[in-house]
Each structure stands twice: as C-alpha cells, then as structure tokens.
Amino acid sequence: MNNNDNKIYKFNYPNITSKKRKSKLNCKNGMFNMKLDEKVGSHTFSRRVWVAINSPFQVNFFHPLILRLRKSLDVLITARGDDRILSMLKAKGLDYVPVGKSEDGPPNERLVAYAKTMEELVPIVQREKPDLLLTERWSEAVRVAFGFGIPSWTMFCDERDPYLNCTVFPLSTKIFASRFHGFKELQENGVTDVKKVTWFDGFPACYLKGASMKECDPFKAEGLKSPVWLVRPEPESAGRSDESKIVERSVQMLTKQKEAKDISLVVLPRNERQLVQYKRYPVTLMTSMVQDSPVVYADAVFGGSENMLMEAFVLSKPAVSSIYWRESKLIQELHRYIPHTLDPGQIAQEVIKFTNSEEALLFKERARLVVNQMDDLVVMMGEEIRRFYGLVQVDHVRSSGRRSRIEIYTDILQEIAFRPRRLTHIMQAANLPYTQLKRYLIRLKKTNLVVERRDRPNGVSYQATSEGVRFLKEYKKVISNLLE
C-alpha cells in the first residue's frame, strides 16, 4: 500500500464575510449550482489577476492576454509542474510559480496529487490575494478560488470529459463558450446557469489571428527550405497501436515519393520514444521550444494534434488531420474545412497536393474568409477584464433596447455563418419568433445571403453563403471603425 493512502488533507480557508462576494450553493440532481450576488460591497481590489495554466496550449493562449493585462494590472501565474509547460513559459520569458505535477498513474495516486496541488495553491492565493482567476478548466485552481470567494472565469472548449467539466463549471462565475456547442452540451457538462456564459464565434486558436513571427525563424535557421510541413504524431494513449502509427506511416510514404522530394518534414515528437522512432527517417526533429507556437513558422501542418490543426487553419495554412479518436464539436467543425483521413496513402497525397501553389492559395483564401468572421477570444477576455475593473466604459450600441433590421439580419447570419442550423436554433440565437424569422430568411434567400438545405435527416436547415459571410465581414469592419 502507498504510504500516502491514509493521509487526510485539510484546507483552512479564511472566512468570507459580506465584504467579499457572497456565494450560495444548492444541490440539484447531484450537481452544485452557485449563484453570486452582484454587489461586491467594500471589497478592495488588489488589481492582481491570477492565471492558472495546466496545459501547453494554455501557455500559448494566455501569453498575449498576459502581455495585455500587464500594461495596467499585476499578473500572478501558477503552472502545473510539467516539464513542457514550464519550458514553454521560460521560452516566453514569463515568471511563474510551479504547482503540483502531472496527474498520471492509478486513481489513488491521482487523488493524492490533486489534494497536494490544492494544498500548494492555498498559501499562494492567501499571500497574493488575486481579484480574479483565469483558467481553461484547472479544477484544483477553480476550487481553491471558490473557497476564497474569488471569481473564476473559465473556458468551455471540450464536451468529452463531463466528469472534469462538472467539477469546474458549476463553480465558475463566467464561462466563455464557443457557439459550436449547444445548450444541451453545456447542461450535460455542469453549466447549469446559461447566464454565466459569454459566447464567442470560432475556435480558441483564434488568438493567432494576424499573428506574425516575433523571433528568428527556427526552420530557416536550420537551413530548411519551403514548404515546411510541421508533423505532430498522435498521442499514444488515444487508441490501438496500429492507429497510433498513422502519422509514422504517412511520413514513411512521403520520404519515398519523388513528388515530395522538395518538402521539408519537421516532426515534433511527444516523448522520448517517439523521438527515437522518427530518427529512422530523413526528417528534422524539433526538440527545443520557441517563443511562439511552432505553427507560426511552418507552411503547413499534418498529424494528430487538435490544437496545432486549429492553429494552422486560423493562420490560413494548409492542414491535414489524422485524428482517429472521438471528435469534439470543435474538431467536427474543423473537419468541415480541412482534409481528414486515416489512410496514410491519402494523407501523403493531400500533402503533395498542397505543394501546388494554386491549391495552397485557394485554401488560404477560403480559410481567411471563414476565420475573419471568428472572434479573437483573447481580445474578448481582455475587454471583459477591463470592464470588471472599471477601466473602460461599456458601449451601448443598442441603447434603445430595440434592434434595427440590419442588426437582426446580422444576428441571423452570425448564427449560420459557419454551419447549417435548424429554425429552432436560429430562433433561440437571434431571439425571434417563428413567423418573423421566416420573413427575414425569405429576404436573405432572395438576396443570395442565405441558402436553404434539405439534405439533413432532421429537415430543413439554413446556412450563410459566401456572399453572406462577406457581408458580415464588411458590416463588422464598418461598426468597428465607427466605434474607434
């Protein structure tokens, strides 16, 4: 038996008086539902934001937000003690406090690691006294923040782990969620109060919109010639051994084909075993960290990394997916725009196809058109934080309480810009009764901004045309210029 099995961890939280935000808990259907009073009372802000990072993606995501916040606020960064996370933070020059470690191993060891992480976080939070927690869904951080009465802002990006989600989102005070998810997914994952949700359009990777190289191109420094394809192998724990070798077989085929002789393959292995595995092929192995996401420096991406594939699409770079495990709603949406196959031969052909400059240019144009309509979540979170501290005034564009016809049209188009939607979904999103919505849709169809589809098993659906997406882009541009 492990010596830690019988240890009991106790956490002493300070009393939360009326000076702090009051919280009320009630339990319904086995889940906690937290309601927060609107008034903060006489609580004095420390002007310190706590950013809790427990995955490599969050390092890249929160980095630009941290730089924005530091212009007017203090930022406390706690990071899970994972070697890759910490090395990425060091490469970006960010100061951090390492907390806990990766929670691998049998259940009893994971529970002990969970408790120890909370035990380490409590004195840090007690000393630093942050006003606000930002994290994707680091459960230990959210629970500690809840114990101290600190508002927690989290991100709903994956519906595939309801157990974890139900430990995070009931205790969150604000939840940023993509419109690719529906109300049903949110409720099944612990989001019991839709009023907590701040919706955004697009992928979390849209933090890279307009990103450019900030340091020397590491691929050019290695003497690699364009096109550079960044290759990310699949996680070995995601499926059967034959499935986890799809990327390797694709690489093997590409290195033997004459059509691919001008392609520079750069493999980013996940572990030491994959490093040894790919040394057998004439590829470049990337083992050191760069300040930005490596996708920024590559010409294209293929493999089994969900985040890198999304980042490539946001940057309008060709991408080929070999994801074979259960797809999230975000990945289902991504696969509408990029090639997806589990056949190594087909992957190799897709890669070779994109070496054609015309094919690559066509992909870039289509991706750019779609991504331009998506929200940059980092910008959204930054504005919400500034409002939280009263650093900006909220612009009341619709001060009369009534929407103009053009605003209603854009609300409808926004809901159906990226995927076909049924009438009931559009009614909820655009806040319109059935008869009014039908009139607006008829007008939008006549002007070729919307197309009606009847190929879905559940009936009729509607989606914005390319002209409708362009209209949204121009409308947002005009409104943005007027509000500057």
Question: What is the topological layout?
Answer:
Blueprint: E1 23-28, E2 31-36, E3 48-53, H1 56-69, E4 74-80, H2 83-91, E5 97-99, H3 107-128, E6 132-135, H4 139-148, E7 152-156, H5 162-168, E8 174-178, H6 183-188, E9 197-200, H7 218-221, E10 228-232, H8 246-254, E11 264-267, H9 272-278, E12 284-285, E13 300-303, H10 306-314, E14 319-321, H11 329-334, H12 344-353, H13 357-371, H14 377-388, H15 405-415, H16 423-430, H17 434-446, E15 450-456, E16 459-464, H18 466-483
Parallel strand pairs: 3-4, 3-6, 4-5, 6-7, 7-8, 8-9, 10-11, 10-13, 11-12, 13-14
Antiparallel strand pairs: 1-2, 15-16
Mean pLDDT, all residues = 84
| CATH superfamily grouping of the largest domain | Glycogen Phosphorylase B
> What does the largest sheet look like?
7 strands, parallel
Using the alpha-carbon principal axes, give the shape.
globular
* Secondary-structure class: alpha/beta
- Got a strand count? 16
The span between the termini is 64 Å
Q: How many helical stretches? A: 18
Describe this structure in words.
- By secondary structure, this protein is α/β, with parallel strands linked by helices.
- It is 39% helix and 16% strand.
- It contains 18 helices and 16 strands.
- It has helices spanning 56-69, 83-91, 107-128, 139-148, 162-168, 183-188, 218-221, 246-254, 272-278, 306-314, 329-334, 344-353, 357-371, 377-388, 405-415, 423-430, 434-446, 466-483; strands at 23-28, 31-36, 48-53, 74-80, 97-99, 132-135, 152-156, 174-178, 197-200, 228-232, 264-267, 284-285, 300-303, 319-321, 450-456, 459-464.
- Helix 8 links the parallel strand 10 (228-232) and strand 11.
- Mean pLDDT is 84; it is low at 1-43 and 394-400.
